[in-house]
Amino acid sequence: MKNYSTIARQELKDWMTRFANVECKEVSPFYFSLSNSIAKDDELIDIAAHCKYRQPMPNLFLAAIHYLLMEENAVSELGSYYPSITTDYKKDLPFGLFKEFCLENKDAIIDIISTRIVQTNALNRCSYILPILSHYFGGKNLNIIDIGTSAGLTMNFEQYEYYFNDEYFFGNSPVKIKSEIREGEIPHFTELPKINKKIGIDQNPLDLKQTQNANWLKALIWADRIPRLKKMNAAIELAQKESTELIKAEKLNEFESIIMEQEKDIPLFVYHTHALYQFSKENRTAFRSLMDEIGSQRDLYYLAVEGHRVFDTDFNAEGVLVVLTTYKKGEKSVKLIAQTNGHANWIKWK
């Protein structure tokens, strides 16, 4: 199994430092401090180097420790410092205690990071999925396919409650989706589509009826993001009552087969959020060609939500782009719908 062990240790240290300063600093003081300390420790970086290749190493490594703490029957000494593990958590985690736990559980950590993948279900991404689906398919029958679905939670968009700029928008649910509209207006909202079929595709789909999978999904949430963890717990409870079809697949011909077997007389919406960045450049190009080929044979709506560098079209915009490609009677049209960030805490509608 290919990992990061062939990459220079200093590169991995720099990666962990960037993760701390760019991703964690403003949103997770706990992981900000921890990641900066890990970046200076050769032994821990050498363990983290076993992360599965093309996976975000800092996220995967920290999630593995988080997962082990969640799996323990009793709260360990390290767990007593994790806000996600106990409400009565201690502050100022001694780094020596963290390192000791990692060294004692080295084999278990390596097993996790060499076999598991980062499969975050950022529920806030539904804040752009819901309005788009209502705008284009309100009141219509619809089939949905989510590529890189993980546990399929974003396909349950109709089960959540929405707020924009702190004002109630739609729904009644224990799962509260909140986002800030920084620019533009929400696409005209009428009613929800009538979902005929939900299909999630992933190289490792997570059946949430299995406790280990539910715990892995929760472990991927940063340990001091308690509101997000509570939201995830509620979403998991809702998902466990659903009958969403999850399919294990990772090859293009498998994607093609699944998409092409869907009824042509029912509109089909295929989407992915932050999935193509894990593809090689060659595979991204092949995937886009596949979508074009399918779109030449049937009507299709294809939503891609990725960092701007992942796209092969220059939209003259940076950050995370929400791009809708429509195939109708063999004609293709591409439109930049919105800009956002990874967790969809804010949206700029176009």
Question: What report would you give on this structure?
Answer:
The chain is of the alpha/beta class and 350 residues long. It has eleven helices and eleven strands. The chain has an eleven-stranded mixed sheet. The longest helix has 16 residues, at 9-24. It is globular, with a radius of gyration of 21 Å. The mean pLDDT is 93.
Number of helical elements: 11
Shape, please?
Answer: globular
What is the helical fraction, as a range of percent?
A: 25-40%
* Total strands: 11
User: What summary fits the major beta sheet?
Assistant: 11 strands, mixed
Weakly predicted, low-confidence segments? none
User: Radius of gyration from the CA trace?
Assistant: 21 Å
- SSE sequence, one letter per element: HHHHHHHEEEEEHHEHEHEEEE
Distance between the termini: 42 Å
Arrangement of strands in the largest sheet: 3-2-4-11-10-9-8-7-1-5-6
What structural class do the secondary elements suggest?
Answer: alpha/beta
Mean pLDDT: 93
Question: Short summary of the structure?
Answer:
The protein has 350 residues and is of the alpha/beta class. It has helices spanning 9-24, 29-38, 42-48, 57-71, 95-104, 106-115, 126-137, 211-219, 226-239, 252-260, 281-295, and strands spanning 141-147, 161-164, 167-170, 176-183, 194-202, 245-248, 268-273, 300-307, 320-328, 331-340, 346-349.
